[in-house]
Specification:
Helix content: over 70%
Number of helices: 2
Order of helices and strands: HH
Number of strands: 0
Number of domains: 1
Shape: elongated
Strand content: under 5%
């Protein structure tokens, strides 16, 4: 069980880190937009969205551990 507990802690850590990253990407997307670089803004926004989706998968993994 020790290994599963380590994995559970890691999964929670990764989720927290992803939330922080998603916010950072979103902030830079707004900055890019204000600079008139819309294509970059869109990419960064999508990156933020995909990071949030990744957290859903991490949440599913946590549920499988119990």
């Amino acid at each position: 069980m020790e290994e599963l507990e380590k994995l559970r802690v890691l999964l929670h850590h990764w989720m927290e880190h992803n939330n922080e990253d998603a916010e950072t990407y979103r902030g830079w997307a707004k900055r890019a937009s204000s600079l008139g670089i819309e294509e970059l803004s869109e990419i960064l926004s999508r990156l933020s969205d995909e990071t949030i989706k990744l957290n859903r998968l991490l949440g599913e993994a946590i549920k499988k551990i119990g």
